[in-house]
Write a structure and sequence with these properties.
69% helix; single chain; 181 residues; 0% strand; elongated
């Protein structure tokens, strides 16, 4: 059942003007506010974490019968790589409004390096939770992803996606290869 334009507008009357005036194209643009970025990074990070966990779980099940022992660490690395690519793509296209580095290839290098520190934390926490505490590997992975999320957002926001001395360098002006998009 389709609502007429007047009925749809009347349904929005009780909402604050700020919410009523949100358009889809505004939602698809990077957010200018810290809270908006945090929420979007949470959604992007949740998507990347889902990819990370999915690749980890599938690869672990494939490797477990062939290489028992450290199979969860190998699966963790490949899950991390896939999740990091998804996270970078969503962060540069949807989450952050500004960038500190003008060349996207350098930006991806720093983004990846911050991710590698997160991977080291992830490997350490997995070792502690699975190897030492004997927690189930899937539960340990979910806990680890939650802990490392805070590191990734804070470090990437400060190092890559904040204003440089008040200068505005719009993020969407460049694509990954460094040309105008």
């Amino acid at each position: 059942m389709r609502l007429s334009l007047t009925r749809r507008k009347s349904a929005l009357v009780g909402l604050p003007r700020r919410i009523r005036n949100v358009r889809l194209k505004d939602f698809l643009r990077p957010s200018p506010t810290l809270w908006g970025q945090l929420v979007r990074y949470g959604l992007a990070g949740g998507t990347a974490a889902g990819v990370n966990i999915l690749v980890y779980a599938v690869l672990w099940r494939l490797l477990h019968s062939r290489w028992p022992g450290h199979d969860y660490q190998v699966a963790n690395v490949f899950g991390f790589l896939c999740g990091n690519i998804v996270s970078y793509t969503l962060s540069t296209r949807w989450v952050f409004e500004y960038r500190r580095l003008r060349k996207p290839i350098h930006e991806f290098g720093v983004y990846f390096a911050i991710g590698l520190v997160g991977l080291a934390w992830s490997a350490l926490f997995l070792w502690m939770l699975v190897g030492a505490a004997h927690l189930h590997r899937d539960l340990a992975k979910i806990i680890t992803v939650g802990i490392v999320f805070a590191w990734h957002f804070g470090a990437r926001k400060v190092a890559l996606f904040s204003k440089i001395n008040g200068a505005r360098v719009p993020l969407r002006r460049q694509c990954f290869l460094g040309t105008d998009s």
